[in-house]
Amino acid sequence: MSDLNHEIKALIIDSLNLEDLTPDDIDSEAPLFVDGLGLDSIDALELGVALQKRYGLTLSAESEETRRHFASISSLAAFVEASRTK
Amino acid sequence: MPDCWPIAAHAIIAWRGDIPIERHAFDADTEQAYRALAALAQPRIVLFETDSYRFAVWLIAAWRAGLTVVVPGDMLPATQAALPLPWVGVVADAALADWHALAAPSISSVYHAPGLEVFTSGSTGAPCAIHKTLTQLANETAALEAAFGSQIASDARIVSSVPHQHLYGLLFRILWPLAAGRAFATDTLPWPESIWALPAGARYALAASPAMLKRIPELPARAAPQVRFDAIFSSGGPLPADANLACSTRLGMPITEVYGSSETGGIAHRHHPQHAWTAQPGVELKTDDAGTLWLRSPFLATPDWFATSDRAALDQGQLTLLGRADRIVKVEEKRISLTRVETLLGALPEISAARALLLPNRRDEIGAVLVLSDAGRTLLAEKGKNGLDRQFRQALSGALERIALPRRWRFVAELPHNDMGKTTEAMLAALFAPAPANPEIVATRQDAHTRMLTLYIGAELIHFDGHFDAAPVLPGVVQVDWAIRLGKAAFGLAGTFADMRQLKFQRIIQPGALITLTMTWDAGKQQLAFAYASASGAHSSGRITFTGTQP
Q1: Is the bond into B491 cis (omega within 30 degrees of 0)?
Q2: Tell me, what DSSP letter sits at residue A44?
């Protein structure tokens, strides 16, 4: 799981083109949006696309569910683990 | 031949060093230049000339011939290509380089639209032409004389650090002195030190750029200059209040700031950085509901109200400037005020200056260029750049939508600027170029022989590309190359690399590091000693010998 955490952190940095940041700087339990990493709505769009491409998973249209998956690196890793097709 | 520009009766027109150029010589030179220009049979010429006397001769002669004179800010090949007209002065067809070389030809034609075209860099950095009639210019010099003339003696010499190729320099160093009967210096003062080299025993008025004045307090301590200033002007860009006060203490004269632009001419002035501004004689001011400053002025082409791009408050005619009017950009369809981003950043104690701009990358992003305060630099050393970026984003998140928060940050020791002290958007955008070859210089410190630069080693540096993918390390050859280039710039060395010795690499430098580069110049040995160090200890050091650093 921690390998997947690291992989997702690297995917976020790479796909969102974040600067001055390494995977080690990202706290697995901290919120991705608003506080913590501070991603915005455009980042959410881009990250969704990147996750679909990399792991072949389908994102729910239901926003409450998506918000739970996208809460932190750990919750995202759990979601990827459960839903990935590649 | 008709007189177009009012020239007061005075015996000495200009000073070349300590040698006067007298009125009769000026009249003879303008007569010859006038004949050369009239023979051209062209209604417009381009004038680029670095010597103020020669510039004045060509300009007055051209106006007598009824020509419009286009005055570019530089003589770069692109500028020459953009102005396919006869060039006069430094860049000139052979016949127009020097009026003395000419046989006096007969006058074939005279035009009737004497005027001036100057260029302003504008906020985008693209030059933009502005036309001025002689009436506009004469109204402006009359207002300058009315506002400041009584404090400047008639035998004071006008000296300047700003090129006369821009409107501020042209008005203050040439047109106003000619109209008011004062002599001007032919050469531009290139360095702050030049003030101390002015011929002693005379009185002076100085038209300076903020870029030069800001550097005067940084000079090593020395006695006040051996000359008396009747007035010191600063215009063309903002002069920070602390630099203003330190400068007036060292030069023994308050700085008169003139607020205006090439487009509007002078708008207002003040003699103390904490005072409100007073409108130039003849200028009317008002503000609208949005706080934007408007003016009506005899220096404008029409009597209509003109909107500036500044916000202001007016109280019984006294003007307080409140920053630039909103610059609105769109990020992914959302409207964002860059002015607001800058104001919020500038209010943080860790930041002493802030600029924001739109970066049209793969997604639209806001970038911020910051000059950190001492508190900010301390925090950078503690938290690293990522920690500081995050803290700034958090500080702004209560006041800005998330999408308006800067995502890219550049820390600089000072904002980049041109020779007029202006920071253009293009200069800021260049700091965000992908795969840069140079580190961010966060701060500089110096004493007599030593320069200390604080460098942030960003992961986006091109030198980390492939060196090595798994464990990026800053190559030693890059560290030596930086020491050579930064050392040459810091000490103003002109020489070339001869050899290097005592090279030691003790500890690797990785992305995200905050490094102090200490350099010492030994002029006797022509040797530059450098050392890279950080909180983790010494990284590398060595000595580089140059040849030909002394002329």
Answers
A1: no
A2: H
**Which structure tokens are listed for B320?**
């307080």
Chain B: give the shortest CA distance to residue A21, in Å.
Answer: 6
User: Which residues from chain A sit within 8 angstroms of residue B393, using beta carbons?
Assistant: 38
Q: Are strands B450-456 and B440-446 parallel, antiparallel or unpaired?
A: antiparallel
In this predicted model, what pLDDT tens digit does every residue of B448-488 receive, in sequence order?
Answer: 889 999 999 988 898 888 888 788 899 999 999 999 999 98
Interchain contact B203–A (C-beta under 8 A)? no
Q: What is the ipTM of this complex?
A: 0.74
* Count of domains observed in chain A: 1
* pLDDT tens-digit readout, B202-244: 999 999 988 889 888 877 777 788 889 999 999 988 888 989 9
Contacts of B13 (CB under 8 A, 6+ apart): B21, B22, B23, B25, B26, B53, B56, B178, B183, B184
Q: Which residues of chain A are within 8 Å of residue B472 when distances are taken between CB atoms?
A: none
Domains of chain B, first to last: 12-113 (no CATH), 133-284+296-303 (3.40.50.12780), 328-428 (3.30.300.30), 440-547 (3.10.129.10)
pTM: 0.65
Task: Give the residue numbers spanning the domain of A73.
Answer: 2-83
Cβ separation of A19 and B511 shorter than 8 Å? no
Look at residue B2 in the predicted model and tell me its pLDDT. Answer: 40
Task: Report residue B86 CA to chain centroid gap.
Answer: 28
